[in-house]
Amino acid sequence: MSRAVVRIASAGDAAAVSELLRTYHEHTEAEKVAHDLQEFGPLAPAYAAEIAAPAFPGSDVLLAEADDRAIGMVILRIAGADAEIKRLWVDPAARGAGAGGALIAEAVRRATAAGAASLRLSVWDWRRDALGLYRSRGFVEVASWETRERLVCLRMPLR
Fold it and tell me: What is the mean pLDDT of residues 100-108?
């Protein structure tokens, strides 16, 4: 697989974004069941709606592509001095092509260019590979802003 390239998603990418969101949410919900945080069941209506009509007003949706197919995505929300990474996901079959690092680098570039003071995200504590990636890029653990247990909150200063 060739190295991942990141670009901003367009309206024509809705099907690819929907598919990445579907695999992200299904994978995450299965992990929550495996870690005894919830019972098995259908996706929450909000997640199903997000998959059906992926629209994130006020946010940039970035796609990572390799070999002419979408293999990863991230939603970047910038609000004043705060920027936040949401839904960072790389297809497990495509991991190792540099998509996660490329998505983070582009999110950092965009947040910095917009004048954000820091970039934050939260990640489930069992996602050791993701935590390692974030820490290797300069994110540090901070006090939690999340109400859901087992989410680790990380922040990267940008200035």
Answer: 97
